[in-house]
């Protein structure tokens, strides 16, 4: 009752709540689950920092002096920087292309009325579910005929089409969320359609563009089947293949393998956490109010 | 409208922004009614004519060249004999339906089909059950504990596939793997140097654990986002009526999130059924081709055995099965769209 009169801070509420068996079980369960889900990531990270002799033990070591030796081994591999460059070229190229192409298409779908609009929405939806993993054989034959095996541009284009439907779909939502009134107001104030788009919609889209492109980045960064099939030459491979081959190349040097995994996972983990904090929500909050 | 956003959320790639999409639940509503109410005012001023077509042309063109054309080529390839000889001489040998009849009469093919279907079914059932349970748990946790659990889920979700496969190989390593140590510590015998990848079945069990671990966060976090949209008065009403937790779930939560459940289930079926990297990178489909699922089977028939025509036929049959599942998925999505 007093909780209703005083403004209850969460802490006050908590101290008042009796510690029931259910509450304990609930929190304990959550804690166990959290450990289970985070453990593989933690184990990758900690193994990557362990000196060799503390990895090759029957009983795992939990306390150790961190060393960067494994990272030296991992990055010292032949062509490591080629793989990094290839990975970045392919992913960033694909995402930028997709953004430009998708922005145009999603604007048309979200804002313009034209014959065949519904059909295009349907095509985008279906393309989103394209089973790329099972299309590798055909893609290989096509690339082979056109001398596009081991080609970074070809891979970039494939990844571009892979992330395109998703990009169109999400941007469509973001554009639709910008009230038409804002655009109209800009036009009344003397903007042309193009200006209205550039000065009004585009700035409001920034968070949407960012989160969409980051998810596109993750998809392309993760891709495995296509590159495995198409780019067999060392010089044209990406970090994805480097990581899968690392294990075989280095036998049981798990420390270096885990360092390689960490290096591969880190950009995505950072992007993900970044997304959570910055890019989510609130995009039109200021514009729509009032 | 909630549904549209769920479609948006869930229809993305495996790493689709569940949270982001959960939040984008706000956009569609504003667009939905507007589209119905405002066409005369908002749209008439817009230029009609060729502009929309010019805007969508690049997207359609690139999808036609790099998605539709490969699909068509895949169908054509499946009617060709394309073994080592034809592969090298680059000649085209048509064989009609030979590849298909060969496959459909092949016991190995059916073994892989059954394996893939069972593997997918078990996986999706586990993912949905555990994901839902964790989603419900998240909804009932205090603020701090919820943050801890969501963060842990986030890490598992964000982990790149190939990295997580590598880590799982290390966790389940025969000699120094931490799982063998854990089993010994828990008092099980026979885990001194237990080989977790000894058979195709055991390998698939590890892949299953990996897939469940990696997919549950998506379901759980989306589930939680969906739960927060259910008004607390519904729970209170259920509580007042003396409903048990189980009954509250079936009477309040499930009906409200039914479309979420359906859509997510179908998405998971599609994702798991066509999963390639996890299965292949874990043990290359081995040992003895015992952990091959359909996509891996197609790859190995082609690249490993030099039967590209047969491989193309396998992928077409896989795509046909996927389309059967997808048709349900699209029916669901379109139904929701119409409700807008």
From TrEMBL, chain A:
GO terms for biological process: transmembrane transport. The chain crosses the membrane at residues 21-45, 88-108, 120-142, 154-180, 200-221, 254-275. It comes from the Bacteria. Residues 84-275 form the ABC transmembrane type-1 domain. It is found in: Cell membrane. One of its GO terms (cellular component) is plasma membrane. InterPro entries: BP-dep_ABC_trans_perm, MetI-like, MetI-like_sf. PROSITE patterns: ABC_TM1. It is a multi-pass membrane protein. Keywords: Cell membrane, Membrane, Transmembrane, Transmembrane helix, Transport. Belongs to the binding-protein-dependent transport system permease family. PANTHER family: INNER MEMBRANE ABC TRANSPORTER PERMEASE PROTEIN YCJP, MALTOSE TRANSPORT SYSTEM PERMEASE-RELATED. This is N,N'-diacetylchitobiose transport system permease protein.
